[in-house]
């Protein structure tokens, strides 16, 4: 006699998890969430009062093998924050502010205590970004994931006024590139970093990092929304590039018109010790480092020369630095 | 000397995949998609002309261990359709029509040919449901997934007029439950089914199924949108329950007011042979079957007694059958 539980799927554990999380999920709700009416879907008021031509901006992402590191270290409360902040930064690059988020949590064996920490991180970051956690799916898939393993993905939906949508088209030669500091690897390059560091003890304190490798590697991917939304409001930004896979140049290329290119002054800022540590440990060529990692710059703001000082002043808390300029492509 | 590729992440393969898929992805675009402007997010016109009070309805889901079966059988073109149709049916239960979809595809080793088939299935179903594929994420995570394995999740966003939002509140004792036929297990109960069938040869033709077990099990989760959206327009529907995990009763409970309950006539329809085959093979108790599987009923329509014949006529292609009624809870 076989039951779902025998086959490795515990519906009661999933219900217990939802019961535990419900009050915290509700704490993310904004007035636009039409709570208690969407049984099969989350409902969100789409009147967007105050917008002449609202545009939804949506993005889906995961946190890559940073989850694997979190699992290995048994620290489950931060990857959810990485995920939400990553998604918030992505739609910010289109000029959008976050409205709501939905998560996907898949695991081999559902441990409600661990899942609660992971989704708790999502809830924390949703609250910090003024973003409602509108829905989600928890999947127990014993044949696909090893018992302690899980994966995490999420989708964000935000809104922007059509005429304030950032599409990079106003960027021109002479514009200035301002880099905002990252808090570490953010969510990119973990497979390479962990391969490079495979013989290192991650939990020993490293004076050059001011922390252990584990702590430095799990440092939370930060959200730039609180800093950048006011700049977007004031029209000071011609383009934003979130530095994810592809590095600084790869991501700038996504937003620049074909007539121009980015010229980076690689010596303009000091690459944080964590990146140099990884590079040394893995003998990783400099070109590969630039293609894979953010090297200390988590977001690039493109602005006109005459607004540089204003942007630098308004971003002061993000350790802003002029990292280059926009030049003709030819 | 170590590179990202050495660490198991092939950025070029991911770019090749996107290049291959781009024309097909574009084929899903509706006029509301603001194409070519969202570099870090997909952009969708949110003016919703014709709606007095538009409400967005969003849902995230996966396909569970049905992916594991697809991987085992080497048939990759259908799970994407399962995923989209599942999500479409979920928001349909709130009365919403689909607007756009975003997918998450995670794998151990990115094989562009396989990923193209998987995402091709998503594209096919998006087109069939009039839903734009607005974005997505492809993640290569060698340490989390075995080389041939992948997981799949997705998020749908739809819209409904506020006063047409189905919240079950109009359901009352005396209302009638009409079941629409499923095409198989849809996307629920695969861990249990595969455990029950572990000694069976899935690819042998089974006369009682009219197919092999593999074919019956991989049968595509169908979308009820084309049938049900016109009924919703006409106001013939008081509630819809998509029969997913939790079975017929579990899902009806999600939409019924607390003052009533569903009374199912379990003998009103014939449970398809596939379910009985699984039950026999796994010696699964009848109660467990009802809690885990749809047993041949993929969607339940709740309607008033006076509109039953009209609903039956309009759903004729879905083999509709009266499966019970709504009775007082006491």
Q: Could you please describe the fold and organization of this structure?
A:
Two copies of one chain form a homodimer. Chain A has helices at 11-26, 66-73, 79-92, 112-128, 190-196, 213-218, 225-233, 247-255, 273-282, 286-292, 308-314, and strands at 42-45, 54-62, 97-107, 132-140, 150-161, 176-181, 205-206, 211-212, 239-242, 260-264, 297-303, 321-328. Chain A has eleven helices and twelve strands. The first copy, chain A, has two domains: 11-164, PurM-like, N-terminal domain (60s Ribosomal Protein L30, Chain: A); 176-328, PurM-like C-terminal domain (Phosphoribosyl-aminoimidazole Synthetase, Chain A, domain 2). Chain A is 33% helix and 24% strand. Chain A has 330 residues and is of the alpha+beta class. In chain A, the strands form three sheets. A five-stranded antiparallel sheet of chain A has the order 9-11-6-12-10, sandwiched between helices. In chain A, strands 2-5-3-4 form a four-stranded mixed sheet, with helices on one face. Chains A and B meet through β1, β2, α3, β3 and β4 of A and β1, β2, α3, β3 and β4 of B.
């Amino acid at each position: 006699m076989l039951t779902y539980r025998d086959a490795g799927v515990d519906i009661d554990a999933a219900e217990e998890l939802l019961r535990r999380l419900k009050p915290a999920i509700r704490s993310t709700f904004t007035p636009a969430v039409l709570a208690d009416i969407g049984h099969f879907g989350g409902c969100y008021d789409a009147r967007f009062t105050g917008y002449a031509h609202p545009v939804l901006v949506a993005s889906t992402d995961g946190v890559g093998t940073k989850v694997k590191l979190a699992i290995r270290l048994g620290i489950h409360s931060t990857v959810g924050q990485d995920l939400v902040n990553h998604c918030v930064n992505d739609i910010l690059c289109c000029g959008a502010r976050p409205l709501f988020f939905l998560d996907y949590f898949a695991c081999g064996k559902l441990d409600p205590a661990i899942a609660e920490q992971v989704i708790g991180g999502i809830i924390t970051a949703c609250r910090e970004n003024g973003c409602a956690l509108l829905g989600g799916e928890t999947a127990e898939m014993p044949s696909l994931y090893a018992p302690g393993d899980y994966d995490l993905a999420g989708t964000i939906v935000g809104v922007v006024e059509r005429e304030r949508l950032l599409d990079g088209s106003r960027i021109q030669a002479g514009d200035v590139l301002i880099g905002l500091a990252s808090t570490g690897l953010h969510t990119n390059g973990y497979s390479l970093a962990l391969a490079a560091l495979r013989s290192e003890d991650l939990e020993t304190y490293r004076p050059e990092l001011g922390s252990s490798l584990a702590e430095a590697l799990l440092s939370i991917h930060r959200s730039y929304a609180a800093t950048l939304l006011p700049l977007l409001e004031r029209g000071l930004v011609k383009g934003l590039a979130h530095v994810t896979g592809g590095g600084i140049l790869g991501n700038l290329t996504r937003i620049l018109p074909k007539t121009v290119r980015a010229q980076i002054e690689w010596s303009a800022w000091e690459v944080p010790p964590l990146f140099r540590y990884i590079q040394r440990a893995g003998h990783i060529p400099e070109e590969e480092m630039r293609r894979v990692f953010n090297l200390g710059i988590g977001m690039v703001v493109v602005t006109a020369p005459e607004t540089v000082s204003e942007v630098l002043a308004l971003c002061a808390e993000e350790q802003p630095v002029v990292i280059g300029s926009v030049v003709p492509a030819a």
